[in-house]
Design a protein that fits this description.
By secondary structure, the protein is an all-alpha fold. It is built from 1 helix and no strands. It is rod-shaped and about 180 Å long. It starts with 9 loop residues before the first helix and ends in a 5-residue tail after the last helix.
Length: 123
């Protein structure tokens, strides 16, 4: 039996190397793509969770600010309304006093008119 060796040329080796590189590149690309996709999905979920948390905190902060503003406005309005109410009571009191005085004057004028009408004419 003769030793039958097959010899490979440099060109054939280069071609085999090119094919091997292409196959390896395709396999690595597919493997990394799957890993990157999984990592990207996990990162996206974490970011969405953080964004949801931040959004809720912002909503809570705005609600609290609105509540505080409403409270301050109501307190200020209540203070104004209390003062206005006292002013209106004073006006009502003054009006009642004036009505009493006008009624008194009307009665006095009526009495004067009665006396004048009941006097006999001067001769």
């Amino acid at each position: 039996m003769a030793d039958e060796r097959q010899f490979v040329t440099k060109a054939e080796l280069r071609e085999e190397l090119k094919l091997f590189k292409a196959e390896l590149k395709a396999e690595l690309k597919a493997e990394f793509k799957a890993e990157w996709t999984a990592d990207l999905a996990a990162t996206e979920q974490r970011l969405e969770g953080r964004m949801d948390t931040l959004e809720q905190r912002m909503i809570d902060t705005v609600r609290e600010m609105l509540h505080d503003t409403e409270t301050r406005l109501l307190k200020a309005f209540y203070g104004w309304a209390d003062g206005a109410n006292q002013h209106f009571k004073q006006i009502d009191s003054n009006e009642a006093s004036l009505n009493t005085r006008v009624t008194s004057l009307e009665n006095r004028l009526f009495e004067v008119e009665k006396r004048l009408l009941n006097q006999p004419p001067a001769a």
